[in-house]
Amino acid sequence: MTTRRDLLASLGTAAAGALAFNTFRGDTNAALRADEGNNPAANVADRTSTIKITRITPTPVKRKVFLKVETNHGVTGWGEIDQLEPYVATALVKSLFELLDGENPTRIEHLWQKIYRSHRDMRGGPFMTHTLAGIDMALWDITGKLWGVPVYRLLGGPTRDKVRMYPSESATKVGAGPQPFSGSPQQIEGFVKTVENARAKVGPKGLVMFDAHCALPPPFLMQLASALKPYDLLYIEEPAVPGNIEVFKRLKKHISIPLAVGEQARTIWEVIPYLQEGCADILQIDCAHTGGISQMRKIAILGEAYHVPLAPHCVTTDLGVTASLHVSASIPFFLIHEYYPSITPPGLVKKSWSLDKDGYASLPEGPGIGCEVDEAVLAELAKQPSPPEWPTRGRLSDGSIADY
């Protein structure tokens, strides 16, 4: 009769090669003693595993932070933190390590909840969820490597053979910077012309998206949407500043073009109002903003219940993009994925997928996330200065502060 221990041994040998079964063999008596100590976690612990987190190393590089999670068995995982003040994010990672030290990295959901709920006044918000996203990516990377499969296999397997990306020859996005509350005919016509040029570029079979960047106040955006043909755009992205669902309801009432929301909706709890109120036609969730692979997949399931697909926002390097691709490959309701190769510094990340001539990405290959980070290149990049970007953002012509 095959025992659980025999099964894990055979899986470990097939999946991880050099990782022998005794790598994962645990001390059952120690686990039982932990039970006796009224440790709730011990009741669900994997008693055949001794793998533990031993170190997290965050490295700030310009506007991003790359973090490496190490274990006592030599298996490591990588994650990326994006769109935060990098030195604050680095300090937060070092502080949160206290919650991860000695934990089994494959208990991904448990550790996500442990970090997210660790402090009642830090729950949610960009600093917690963006930082948690990088940690979550690394934990999935480790778990995939231990099982010897790509992460999307652990998410239920692929639902598609390739993932459509933009920008490409057949899909493009145009955008806007801060604008006044209401526009002149000349201003509106300028944006209409931009959309017309983009449409001419991709042709009638191509896709054009418009990113409002939360920078077009509702009156301005309603003016613009009325001047556009409804079918000119696949969607309008970030139509308003998050925080008041009534604004999104007002825009949805007056705009016939599909609205894509969620770039700054960082958890399932922040997405729910958009779906319940019918304000989201497309969810442009960002894996690096919303708490990583774990939370992104949950949001995809919520969207599926409302027949709302994902069109993931993504301005990370190839590391964060690949993490996002694993979710996109495994969910049924998906539209298109954002990707800018120029964001990745040369030589820093070696990815396991490629783009074809039609703008489709192949599925990531290899165990875990499927990326290798050159630590020597990372160390050199970390020496470069990282000036803040906000002094150049969000200014109107009269000198007042605008949303962006």
UniProtKB/TrEMBL annotation:
Residues 382-404 are annotated as: Disordered. One of its GO terms (biological process) is amino acid catabolic process. Gene3D superfamilies: Enolase-like C-terminal domain (3.20.20.120), Enolase-like, N-terminal domain (3.30.390.10). It comes from the Bacteria. Its EC number is 4.2.1.6. Keywords: Lyase. It is an enzyme of class 4 (lyase). It holds the Pfam family MR_MLE_C. One of its GO terms (molecular function) is galactonate dehydratase activity. This is D-galactonate dehydratase.
